[in-house]
Amino acid sequence: DDDDDDDGEGDGVHGAFERAARDPPPPNAGEVAVTLRRGACFGELEKIFGASPNLRAAVVAVDPNDREDSNPRDVNPDLNPKPAAKPGAVLWAVDGRVLRRKKAFKAVVESMRAQVAAWRPLLDGVAFFADATDAMQRSFLACALRATTFRPREAVAKEGDECAGAWMVMEGEAHAVATLVGGGERWVAGYWPGDGFGFNSLVWGHGTSGDETEGGVEGCLAFEATMRCGEDVDGTELAYVGRVTFARMFEKSTRSWRRMRATARESAARVAETRESKRPAPLRPGDPNIARMIAAMAAAATDGNGGGGGDGNGGGGGNGGGTPRPP
């Protein structure tokens, strides 16, 4: 039936669980990826999307030393003269078939599936995600995307700002504009639906030990130009995923993370490659969008002298690249 009752199960969930990385076994065997405490869950995406068990990137095990979320009566000798030797943990295990019968869960599933159906084509069309992730990972990522609408000519990020995630254009347009010495601006690159910027920052350039290079720890990626929305009166809608969220989703899957980092490095090495989205969209009949005409002239001048522009994955080109790239 489609009732909402849960027969009283799951009221006493407590304890902590360690998810230990197992890929590859040495030297990272037993490394704790995350500790799950009261209210946390795992395996829910598999029940929603029907993922293969082979996609699991970690082993879940009870932490025998954790007492933070344990019942005080079980661990406090003042309340219980014979406390349990190990606090243990209590789980609420729900079969996927039973879970999908609940009305509330069915609403969540349908909402997530609708979001995946709407945003998977966007992710499939982005070269970085198409090369570095598989179809199931892009479905998971679609659930984490957040859409934001910006006003005409509003700045998404200013020159010198740290790049903390990736932006993808859903509706409208965005432009990278570099500031010239002595004032004025120069158009560098344009982004239309299906384009994006900042992808390299998802997997490296965080200024951490994982970004070590020959010269030491690599600095954080920063915007080399101001990323500004176009002049469409309806504004510009961008989908965003932060690098922290992205790392939580994929960093502990060693093979996937290594592939993503390699893809990011390859994309940064192709900064001189011309991309189709660099060229402004044709002027629509009756569209008084002066920015497109200015951008077209700037693109023609740039193509003539071989400078400017960038790859489609967030790397700037020439001496004035407008999107994040390694220092």
From TrEMBL:
InterPro entries: cNMP-bd_dom, cNMP-bd_dom_sf, RmlC-like_jellyroll. Residues 290-303 have a biased composition (Low complexity). Residues 304-327 have a biased composition (Gly residues). Residues 64-76, 268-279 have a biased composition (Basic and acidic residues). SUPFAM superfamilies: cAMP-binding domain-like. Residues 1-10 have a biased composition (Acidic residues). Transmembrane segments: none annotated. Residues 1-31, 63-86, 268-327 are annotated as: Disordered. PROSITE patterns: CNMP_BINDING_3. Residues 129-205 form the Cyclic nucleotide-binding domain. This is Cyclic nucleotide-binding domain-containing protein. It comes from Micromonas pusilla.
